[in-house]
Specification:
Elements: E1 6-9, H1 16-27, E2 31-33, H2 34-42, H3 46-53, H4 55-72, E3 76-78, H5 87-93, E4 98-102, H6 105-112, H7 125-143, E5 146-149, H8 155-165
Parallel strand pairs: 1-3, 1-4, 2-3, 4-5
Helix pairs in contact: 1-8, 2-4, 3-4, 4-5
Amino acid sequence: MSAPAVVLVGPMGVGKTTVGELLAERLGTRFRDSDADIVAAQGRTIADIFVDDGETRFRELEREAVRTAVAEHDGVLALGGGAVLDASTRELLAGLPVVYLTMEVGEAIKRSGLNTARPLLAVNPRQQWKLLMEARRHHYTDVARVVVPTDDLTAEEVTEAVLEALGLKRSAPAPAQDAPEPGSPGSPGSPGKEKQA
């Protein structure tokens, strides 16, 4: 059974999609977003699902979307901010390379103004964001293998930090050297020098 190479969790607006796309590019794999899966399947925005069907129904759709994505996807997977609220989802994430991307409320305001079409932040967004984080932070921490702060970092810098934290960062290639003379130590086929794997 396949499993995602990296799973990104964290609050809304932290940059999971942007960083996820960069990670997938760096790792030579595909990117998938569970929220985008829900929107595609429902033919409606998440805000519309909240308004029309309520949060409980959205969480059911989210739980199923995450379960399907974890089972099917072997690339980089980003989860919606509230996905970790579900206990079965947290169990599903156990043992996977989960990265918790963090940011403080000041950073959230700087990035999005907290005035985008986010249904849970419709009233008093700053206070709501703090309350949401108080309810979710321990869940993010529980499922995460590593925690990567994103405050004051570019998406590229966060991507580098994630790769390094998971031990996926490729070391810089060794400087080019002149090819050894045939028959000298280290040349192909020369005796007494085993190839290092």
